[in-house]
Structure formats: C-alpha cells, structure tokens
Amino acid sequence: MGGSSIWLCPPAGTQIEAVLIKLISNTVPAYFGDEKVPDFRPHATITSEIPSNLDPQEVLDSIDIKELPNVVFSSMVIGETFFTRGTLHIEKNDSIVALATHCREKFAFGGQSKDDAEKWAREIFTPHVSLVYSNLWPIPEDVSKAIENDVLSAGIGLSGVSGSNSEPDMNGWKGGKLLLVPTSKPLDEWVVLAERNL
C-alpha cells in the first residue's frame, strides 16, 4: 500500500464517534492478551495509493462531494489480514461508491481511468471500519462472538443482523470528516496530513 489514504471519519463529538473510540481503544483490545494492538481513530478508508508528491490539503479540498457519504453498518466481520482482523462492514450504497470512485479516478496512483476506478469500486472496494489491527490468527470463535456482542451492547446497529436494535444515529453516520494519512509508513508515523469537514 503506497502513498497515503483518504479516510472518512465520523463527525466529531457525536455519540457514534465516542462509542467507536471506546471499542477500538479499550473494549476490543482486551481480547488480544499480551499483544500490544495499536490504537487508531475510527475511520473508513475510501481509497489508498495517493501519491506523496501531491499537496495533502489540495487533494481533500478538490474532492467533489455531490452527495454526503452515508455510512451504514451491515455486519461485524473477522478478516484474514492484520488490518481487517475485526471490522464493521459498510453497505456499498451509491454515496459511498460514488465518493470512492471519484477519489480513485482523481488521485490513486496519480489518477486512473473512470472505467478502472468504477471497476475497482464495484469489485474490489470493501468499505469497513476496523475495530482492531492484530497478528492473532485464527481468531477463536468465542472471541469473535464476544466482540460482536460488545458492538451490539454498545448500541451500534448492524443492518444485516436480526435483532440488532439501535437508535438511527448509531448504525453509522452521514457526512463526517475526510483525512489524508500516510498509511504506507509504519503505524506510529500515521499522522493527519490534512483534514476537511463535510
């Protein structure tokens, strides 16, 4: 993963932001024993591979937002990679796909064709909010279940999980904030290069 990534973060000061921070920083790491899992801010990666020679603030300021991105959580998924070990998958609705396609076409690898960007957004892009980065694999079934229970008991709604009842503003968020983060660097060098409120 070269260059930087565009992150979509929940609006500052909202309940969903506070709940996600608690899950990422305190609740979920407790299941990973002695492994020092990293702490990070809640976000969905919209695209990576943004060349480092581009001006970070200009990148974010030049993103054309036709419709505010609408994040809707669908399920809790245990992934097979360090960065997807525990994630909240997001519905690939029109607003999320349009934002990812636009950012990919305009910036990824210095710019891609519209066809390539659309194909990537439809077939490869898997929008999610990570809850933990971990080397532990496989994840024991009881840990996976416990994390999902923590997510639900925190009040987060999952559209794909029956019996998942939550307040409408706890099943995701609308709008939020875009950040540019140099994710090709080591984790401890992931700093915010630029940000833009939507």
Number of E-type strands: 8
- Provide the CATH superfamily: Cyclic phosphodiesterase
The number of helices is 5
Helix content: 25-40%
- Named CATH architecture: Alpha-Beta Complex
Secondary-structure-based class equals alpha+beta
Average pLDDT, to the nearest integer? 94
What's the arrangement of strands in the largest beta sheet?
2-1-7-8
Report on the structure:
It is a single chain. This protein has 198 residues and is of the alpha+beta class. The protein has one domain: Cyclic phosphodiesterase (Cyclic Phosphodiesterase, Chain: A), CATH 3.90.1140.10. Helix content is 28%, strand content 22%. The chain contains 5 helices and 8 strands. It has helices spanning 15-27, 56-61, 94-107, 114-123, 141-153; strands spanning 4-9, 44-50, 70-77, 86-90, 128-132, 172-174, 177-181, 194-197. The strands form 2 sheets. A 4-stranded antiparallel sheet has the order 2-1-7-8. The chain has a 4-stranded antiparallel sheet with strand order 5-4-3-6. Strand 3 and strand 4 (86-90) form a beta hairpin. The radius of gyration is 16 Å and the shape is globular. The chain starts with a strand and ends with a strand.
